[in-house]
Design a protein that fits this description.
The chain is an alpha+beta fold and 172 residues long. It has 5 helices and 4 strands. One of its GO terms (molecular function) is DNA binding.
Length: 172
Amino acid sequence: MPHIQVENWGLVEALEKRFKVTCFVGHDIRSLALAEHYFGASQDCEDSILVRVHRGTGAGIISNGRIFIGRNGNVGEIGHIQVDPLGERCHCGNFGCLETVAANAAIEQRVRHLLEQGYQSRLSLDECNIKAILQSANKGDTLACEVIEHVGRHLGKTIAIAINLFNPQKGG
């Protein structure tokens, strides 16, 4: 339930009781990291980091075989690491957060801006969505490739920071 404050609702307990399973309710990226730990690429690891770029950019961290959520449940918000001090204002209020570069809307906005500036591309302003941008990059479109490479450089630096901080067996 994105951006909805819910407190004192025994959902986990109700699900565990009803279905007789261990249950975890959490942020999408932490849930994905936990699923990878139990069923996917990191199931043989006690420590791993899963990074996802979508509406935002986040990391799910598994430490000692358990999901790492921290005191307030906000561990792994790598999208709010500042990568460009003179960058765009983030919805969190800071400037130049990774999410202002590496999130679907940010990628679409950057391509749209460059097209409006007159840069050549197979893309048009009418089809400036993440799917079309990625398809164009896969077909070698220079503008799409350069934007994705720009995102990749910032994302790579941030993932390197996360790996150095948490020293996982697997990351990515």
